[in-house]
Amino acid sequence: MDAARLHEYTEEMGEALSIDEVDRPSPSRSDHVVIEVEGAGWCQTDNHIIEGMWTDYVEQDLPMTLGHENAGEVVEIGDEVSTVEVGDKVICHPLMTCGQCRACRLGEDMHCENGQFPGLNTDGGFAEYLLTSERSTIKLDSVDPVEIAPHADAGITAYHAARKAVPHLHPGSHAVVIGIGGLGHIGLQALEAMSATTTIAVDIKDEALSLADRLGADHTVNSSEEDVAEAVEAITDGAGAEQVLDFVGADETTALAPEVVAPGGDHHIIGYGGHIHEPSQALVNGEFSFVGNIVGKYTELQELVALVEGGEMHLETSQYPLEEINDVAEALEHNEIEGRAVIVP
Ligand SMILES: [Zn+2]
Ligand SMILES: [Zn+2]
């Protein structure tokens, strides 16, 4: 089968991956599931993997097939698989978890001590077939695997943060969403679907803010023209926002926390790249927290699939054949992809 593989780390996105002929995977464990990949979302994380940015965090054996946002049809199952069968359409949680460790037993899939992450430390979905496990698969009812694929990582990550924020968002509260991009626009919709809070969308681009407006944001703030802290203060009557979802994670956005987070509230970090440099006294005085977020739980992906199946989530996707994968890598590097790109192997 064809697979788009990384042979060496590079900054040259235009020739990052090569299409190799490799063996089709087959189940070697009784819980293994092989899917024919129908859609595999391209993600900024793929660009980072290509650049070698993840080598300090995970062990990678090159060459490796990338692709961690996978959905498709089950074509082969191990002897003990009972919850999916050949012919089922599924989306895959990005981590193949062990089910036995304490984190797994707590439902904290991302903290599994024995997990494998296809596309990050084992072969992923930019190929005709993907090897995964029963614990990772979620059956789809009516949605197209190609359309839902990016939710396997981008969607679940945004949903996970929104899910943590929602219990603190009573009617009359305020939530700020910073960065209405690929993840932020999903996070905004999750808040709208799950709470009666008043949402404030912040971005530097007018197009992003008009998308936020169409998706139900109550207020929009263009941070290249307005002072965000002043705008939030005016909208919240000086109270601040109980929850902030920061999909940018730059120095400038984390620096907003002391001024925009209501006392006792949370500033969730989902985007990354910058630093947090606030005076410790500001956290003591406001008793607010910075909260990290990494992907999400299997059960959260189930919930997100339910929202998608129910027509509650709108996701812009564009599709590309496997042969064009390096063009997609290059285009994303230059911020030229609208919504999420999905490779259709
Ligand atoms: Zn991703
Ligand atoms: Zn585990």
Structure description:
There is one protein chain. It contains twelve helices and 16 strands. It has 345 residues and is an alpha/beta fold. The protein has two domains: 2-153 and 296-344, Medium-chain alcohol dehydrogenases, catalytic domain (Quinone Oxidoreductase, Chain A, domain 1); 157-292, NAD(P)-binding Rossmann-like Domain (Rossmann fold, 3-Layer(aba) Sandwich). Strands 3, 5, 6, 7, 8, 15 and 16 form a seven-stranded mixed β-sheet that branches. α12 (325-333) links the parallel β15 and β16 (340-344). α4 (154-165) crosses α5 (184-194). The longest helix is centred in the middle third of the chain and has 12 residues, at 154-165. It is globular, with a radius of gyration of 20 Å.
Topology:
Layout: E1 2-6, E2 17-21, E3 32-41, H1 44-50, E4 64-65, E5 70-77, E6 89-92, H2 102-105, E7 129-133, E8 137-139, H3 145-148, H4 154-165, E9 174-178, H5 184-194, E10 198-203, H6 206-214, E11 219-222, H7 228-235, E12 241-246, H8 251-254, H9 257-260, E13 261-269, H10 280-286, E14 289-292, H11 298-309, E15 317-321, H12 325-333, E16 340-344
Parallel strand pairs: 9-10, 9-12, 10-11, 12-13, 13-14, 15-16
Antiparallel strand pairs: 1-2, 1-4, 3-5, 3-7, 3-16, 5-6, 6-8
Helix pairs in contact: 4-5
Bound molecules: zinc ion (ZN) (2 copies).
What's the tally of helices? Answer: 12
Q: If you compute it from the alpha carbons, what radius of gyration comes out, rounded to the nearest whole angstrom?
A: 20 Å
Number of strands: 16
Count structural domains.
Answer: 2
CATH class of the largest domain, please? Alpha Beta
Main sheet characteristics: 7 strands, mixed
Bound molecules: zinc ion
Distance between the termini: 10 Å
**In percent terms, what proportion of residues is strand?**
15-25%
CATH architecture of the largest domain: Alpha-Beta Complex
- Percent helix, as a range, is 25-40%
Q: Average the pLDDT over all residues and give the rounded result.
A: 96
Instruction: Output the helix-strand order.
Output: EEEHEEEHEEHHEHEHEHEHHEHEHEHE
Structural class, please?
A: alpha/beta
Low-confidence stretches: none
